[in-house]
Amino acid sequence: MITLALSKGRIFDETLPLLAAAGIEVLEDPETSRKLILATNQPGVRVVLVRATDVPTYVEYGGADLGVTGRDTLIEHGGQGLYQPLDLKIAQCRMSVAVPSDFDYASAVRQGSRLKVATKYTTIAREFFASKGVHVDLIKLYGSMELAPLTGLADAIVDLVSTGKTLQANNLVEVERIMDISSRLVVNQAALKLKQAAIRPILDAFSNAIEKNA
Ligand code: PRT
Ligand code: MG
């Protein structure tokens, strides 16, 4: 049995076409079913639904053989013990710094001010500001980062941006692009050896499908 860990929402939705290319069809809709283990049309393949941030953990410890996870999540997790054979080019966005539209970020940086930065992505934020030589106090949040500068909790946020509509709706502007983000396939290292015969065709089908989309 091959177990694939996915999170509900954009990762599940955007992985479906890749699974289809590998001849795998998920037999239940996670938005309507309450099940956490979903059968597929292939008796040897199942999908487990986990929180996006838990995908690397499931795959690292063998709770799943394969998983799909954002580069953001992977960097924060550390990626240890995971084989990362493919950039699936799905769930694309960017990691950015944003501030209230009336905050002069450029002069704060120029003057060497200490910035209060709220984020879920403390590893990425710490490395980015350290590389720029900007001193920051990081405030760890688990969601709704956009609220932090509006309430005086922070001067800036580090968050994912895709259309930019969320920033705009909250009067925030993007002042730095830290990195481009897409989702990766991650594979448990032991599973890759022990379940080669089942995993290899899935990797090949995904890889061909990505090339076709490019
Ligand atoms: O939502 P939940 O708390 O359950 O978990 P999650 O946020 O970790 O999962 P999910 O499904 O929202 O995100 C999974 C992965 O999708 C992330 O790890 C990213 O790699 C990728 N991804 C791609 C995104 C976005 N685009 C995205 N736009 N993840 C989040 N967003 C959020 C962003 O945080 C911000 O709040 O969408 C908002 C901005 O979108 P725009 O279009 O208004 O700019
Ligand atoms: Mg989310």
Structure description:
- With 214 residues, the protein is of the alpha/beta class.
- The protein is built from nine helices and eleven strands.
- A six-stranded mixed beta sheet has the order 2-3-1-4-11-5. The chain has a five-stranded mixed beta sheet with strand order 8-7-9-6-10.
- It starts with a strand and ends with a helix.
- The model has no long low-confidence stretch (mean pLDDT 97).
- Phosphoribosyl ATP (PRT) binds next to helix 1, helix 3, strand 9 and helix 7.
- One of its GO terms (cellular component) is cytoplasm.
- Belongs to the ATP phosphoribosyltransferase family. Short subfamily.
- Keywords: Amino-acid biosynthesis, ATP-binding, Cytoplasm, Glycosyltransferase, Histidine biosynthesis, Nucleotide-binding, Transferase.
Question: End-to-end span in angstroms?
Answer: 31 Å
Strand order of the main beta sheet, please?
2-3-1-4-11-5
What compounds are bound to the protein?
phosphoribosyl ATP, magnesium ion
Mean pLDDT: 97
Principal-axis shape equals: elongated
The biggest sheet amounts to:
6 strands, mixed
Number of strands: 11
Subunit structure: Heteromultimer composed of HisG and HisZ subunits.
Domain ATP phosphoribosyltransferase catalytic: 51-206
Pfam family, one: HisG
Keywords: Amino-acid biosynthesis, ATP-binding, Cytoplasm, Glycosyltransferase, Histidine biosynthesis, Nucleotide-binding, Transferase
Note the main attributes of this structure.
alpha/beta, elongated, five-stranded mixed β-sheet, six-stranded mixed β-sheet, 214 residues, 11 strands, ATP binding, amino-acid biosynthesis, binds phosphoribosyl ATP, 35% helix
